[in-house]
Amino acid sequence: MQNYLLEKVKEHEESLDVNNPRDFIDYFLIKMETEKDNQELVFTYENLVITAFDLWIASSETTSITLKYALLLLLKYPQVTAKLQEEIQRVIGKHNSPCMQDRSHMPYTNAVLHEIQRYINLSTIGIPHSVTCDVKFRNYLIPKSFQKRSLLATSDGFWQSPMKRVLDISCVDEDFD
């Protein structure tokens, strides 16, 4: 994997346009050039490969988990799947590839994607947050090193009025027409 990433970095170097960076690797290479005289060299090929690998691993896991849950939820809610399919065929068609410009014409699809991400709440799988010193918040004391994994996306007590959800079994489909 390291050799593959180094090969991609070399390809980026050969086609780099500093006035038109395409992606993370381009931005990193530009920063490497501007920071090359810095004694505390942080922007190195080694760090670029390590960071790219970390991003690849993290995105692979979250993407695969999201897709698995999306498929399960779409199987569970066939009426949602049917509306998604209708919107996708109406906006994109059967023989076209989707593009970013299509997104603004697909509010139902966008809502379902956001709802799937809220529903599975990947953030609880990730890194917990902690405070570095004792914190007084309202009438509560949050002690130093207290770890918190946020579940705000699924907390009924957090919202002033419960939000109707696309994938909530108690929601009536007409609410989203």
Task: Describe this entry's structure for a reader.
With 177 residues, the protein is mostly helical. The protein is built from five helices and four strands; from the N terminus they run H-H-H-H-H-E-E-E-E. Helix 1 packs across helix 3. It is flat and about 60 Å long. It starts with a helix and ends in a 29-residue tail after the last strand. 5% of the residues are buried. InterPro entries: Cyt_P450, Cyt_P450_E_grp-I, Cyt_P450_sf, Cytochrome_P450_fam2.
- Contiguous runs where pLDDT drops below 50 for at least 5 residues: 169-177
Taken in chain order, the helices and strands follow as: HHHHHEEEE
Q: Largest sheet at a glance? A: 2 strands, antiparallel
Q: Between the first and last Cα atoms, what is the distance in angstroms? A: 47 Å
> Strand order within the widest sheet?
1-4
Tell me the β content: 5-15%
